[in-house]
Design brief:
Elements (H helix, E strand, L loop, with lengths): L1 H20 L7 H17 L3 H10 L2 H21 L17 H25 L5
Helix pairs in contact: 1-2, 1-5, 2-5, 3-5, 4-5
């Protein structure tokens, strides 16, 4: 149980790092979301499925997932329209313009979507 929680913490931290620095190194929003979903899956495997279900409903994660998609569409429209962000120095986090923000939104969407999917698997285990 402790190892699952330690692994979940490490996966969550890796997910945050991949989302923020995905334009500088291999990774990006989807890889970060998979790492975040893996972190949530490890927490669910460690035995706190009821707590996770309560948190999912309490924080309205389904609505946050939909809001991430809408925000992605809006920000990508700004990016395609040519609205510039302040240019950063080459190789820094701010050098990616819109990409780090879009990566974070994709990571949120994939993480929350995988949370919902893994919760369904855990809730209906043994029924298929």
């Amino acid at each position: 149980m402790v190892l699952c929680q330690l692994g979940a913490t490490m996966a969550a931290l890796i997910g945050v790092e991949l989302a923020l620095r995905g334009h500088l190194s291999p990774g990006g929003g989807f890889a970060a979301g998979v790492a975040g979903g893996s972190a949530i899956g490890l927490v669910l495997i460690s035995g706190s499925a009821r707590l996770s279900d309560r948190l999912y409903r309490r924080w309205r994660a389904d609505l946050w997932e939909k809001a991430a998609v809408i925000a992605f569409v809006v920000l990508s429209t700004f990016a395609l329209a040519g609205v510039p962000l302040p240019a950063g120095t080459f190789g820094t986090l701010a050098s990616g313009s819109w990409i780090p923000l879009l990566n974070v939104l994709v990571a949120v969407k994939v993480t929350l979507g995988s949370w919902a999917m893994v919760q369904l698997f855990v809730r209906h285990r043994g029924l298929l």
